[in-house]
Write a structure and sequence with these properties.
- The structure is a single chain.
- This protein is α/β, with parallel strands linked by helices.
- The chain has 2 domains: 25-37 and 105-216, Rossmann fold, CATH 3.40.50.1000; 39-102, no CATH class.
- It is built from 11 helices and 7 strands.
- It has helices at residues 39-50, 54-61, 66-71, 77-88, 94-102, 112-120, 133-142, 155-158, 165-174, 189-197, 208-216, and strands at 25-28, 35-37, 105-107, 124-129, 151-154, 182-186, 201-204.
- A 5-stranded parallel beta sheet has the order 5-4-1-6-7, sandwiched between helices. Strands 2-3 form a two-stranded antiparallel ribbon.
- β6, α10 (189-197) and β7 (201-204) form a beta-alpha-beta unit.
- The two termini are 41 Å apart.
């Protein structure tokens, strides 16, 4: 049974359903949600520009955490480029390297009508992404999907990557609502679970159809 507070209000009975707050803001991941991407393709293309094998490129860039430092904003594009030149002890064409590292994205066309529907219904859209300035600028220049968003939480500005606390803390300042009025979707379950620790509603993104179906559990209809 519920109990009575001194002010005369009562706590809810354990058997009663606690009403959910209405969602006001959506927090979307970018990679494999809005756009698909491939690290193997990135390694192969960058390796060709750098004149090394893909396994060596992977070891030097990804396994050494160089890419993650770039995505945390610890390195500029120029510093990332100079670091690779120093590692491989050879000159590397800057523009070719930039294209090789960034030309790895394909738009998820099925999510566009969903974003448009959410915007038409008055929801706030905020991006939260582990990304470097090269990738973010490339996607923004190539596709118009990000034009639908009201604000951006990107790791290279936050100085942190998911699932580190700082990027979620920054997101809380951008959503313009209480955390439990914001629905966060990401293709990585660990990141969604971390977001829920900050009070966000969460749903794992697998396909657009399943995402639309999950929205109905929050009372939201989309085409």
């Amino acid at each position: 049974m519920g109990s009575i507070r001194p002010d005369g209000t009562g706590t809810q009975n354990m058997d009663q359903e606690i009403p959910l707050k209405r969602v006001k803001t959506f927090l979307f991941d970018m990679g494999n949600v809005l756009v698909f991407f491939s690290h193997p393709i990135m390694c192969r293309q960058m390796a060709e520009v750098c004149g090394v094998s893909p396994p060596e490129l992977k070891a030097r860039v990804f396994d050494s955490a160089l890419q993650w430092d770039f995505e945390r904003g610890f390195l500029s594009e120029e510093e990332f480029h100079r670091t690779l030149e120093a590692i491989f002890e050879k000159p590397i064409d800057f523009e070719l390297l930039r294209q090789a590292s960034a030309d790895i994205f394909e738009l998820n066309t099925t999510v566009i009508p969903v974003l448009d529907s959410l915007k038409d219904q008055g929801y706030r859209l905020v991006l939260i992404s582990n990304t470097c300035t090269t990738h973010f600028d490339w996607v923004r220049e190539k596709y118009d999907v990000l034009d639908r968003f009201d604000d951006f939480v990107v790791s290279y500005e936050a100085g942190a990557i998911k699932p580190e606390s700082a990027i979620y803390e920054l997101a809380l300042t951008k959503i313009q609502c209480d955390p439990d009025e914001c629905l966060y979707t990401d293709d990585i379950p660990e990141y969604v679970e971390r977001g829920e620790e900050f009070g966000l509603k969460g749903t794992v993104f697998t396909t657009t159809d399943r995402f639309v179906h999950s929205l109905r559990t929050f009372g939201i209809e989309c085409p």
